[in-house]
Design goal:
Strand order of the largest sheet: 1-2-3-5-4
Number of strands: 9
Structural class: alpha+beta
Helix content: 40-55%
Strand content: 15-25%
Radius of gyration: 19 Å
Order of helices and strands: HEEEHEEHHHEEEEHHHH
Shape: globular
Distance between the termini: 37 Å
Largest sheet: 5 strands, antiparallel
């Protein structure tokens, strides 16, 4: 999947709904493509690499739209779906597409750990009453299993490494029923990169991995947001970052991160050094 194809799909769907796009600008091309459909205040998000780890990417996007719509109605700090055309998800040219309001970045503002920690606490408070059905720790359990199967089919990176990774997943799945904490809707990928500094304040984006589970999963995601910022943000959330109850979530997050980095190298070979570093980090902290 290419960024050019993703842009073409988004522009074509927008045109079907009467939205003129003169100058589409790719804002980010990583696991998904985000494109500003200028001059319209709309951002299209099109999964690319992430489709490798999901049997039906459109299902994850539909959950995301439902959760963000729920949060928007309650005034939670999120970037809302677009109100200029239906948010989707749509499918075109083999791509799944959703549409979001364009949020202007406040480039003069650097989010502090206290901003991030409090924003996550506010988000969790708003999510507690979400009534929809969500997969239990989908990013940690379902997604990782699917990724492993896809990587194994390509023998990537090698059978020995894949066997190590699968052994760890089997252990985590066996332990998952004992993971601590009450269950609620959580963001699923709550790192600082998914919190935008805007003139209206910090706003959460990218709920594609939203799931049900203990808030410890989101806190483990946050602890991966750079050592200093992540630890301070979790402290400002109100939890000790060294709490032993977070350890199983940290193990699962490192496994997920290593698998996604390996998957990314299939589309972006230049990411191989980072993927190998993620594997080394996973092995170093596995015990």
């Amino acid at each position: 999947m290419s960024s050019a194809g993703a842009v073409s799909a988004a522009v074509a769907i927008a045109a079907d709904h009467g939205v003129r796009v003169d100058d589409p600008v790719v804002l980010k091309d990583s696991f998904s493509v985000r494109v500003h459909l200028r001059p319209a205040p709309i951002v299209a998000r099109v999964p690319t690499v992430t489709t490798f780890g999901r049997p039906r990417p459109v299902d994850a996007l539909a959950r995301e739209v439902a959760v963000v719509s729920f949060l928007t109605e309650r005034g939670a700090p999120v970037v809302p779906v677009s109100d200029l055309l239906p948010p989707g998800p749509f499918e075109r040219y083999g791509y799944a597409v959703t549409f979001w309001a364009y949020a202007e970045h406040d480039r003069d503002r650097q989010l502090k750990p206290v901003d991030v920690g409090r924003a996550l606490a506010d988000l969790h408070a708003a999510l507690r009453d979400y009534p929809g059905e969500l997969p239990y720790l989908g990013p940690a359990l379902e997604e990782t299993a699917f990724l492993l199967d896809r990587l194994d089919a390509r023998a990537h990176p090698d059978r020995g490494t894949l066997a190590e990774l699968r052994e760890e997943l089997d252990l985590l799945r066996a332990e998952s029923r004992r993971w601590p904490g009450p269950v609620q809707a959580v963001h699923g990928d709550a790192h600082a990169g998914n919190l935008l500094a805007t003139p209206e304040g910090p706003l959460w984006i990218d709920f594609e991995e939203t799931c049900s589970g203990p808030v410890g999963w989101d806190l483990a995601c946050m602890l991966g947001s750079g050592r200093f910022l992540g630890r301070r943000a979790v402290q400002d959330y109100g939890v000790d970052p060294d709490d032993p109850e977070l350890r199983p979530f940290l193990r699962a997050r490192r496994l997920q991160g290593a698998l996604w980095m390996l998957a990314k190298t299939l589309s972006f070979p230049e990411e191989t050094p980072r993927a190998l570093a993620a594997l080394d980090d996973w092995r170093r902290t596995r015990g």
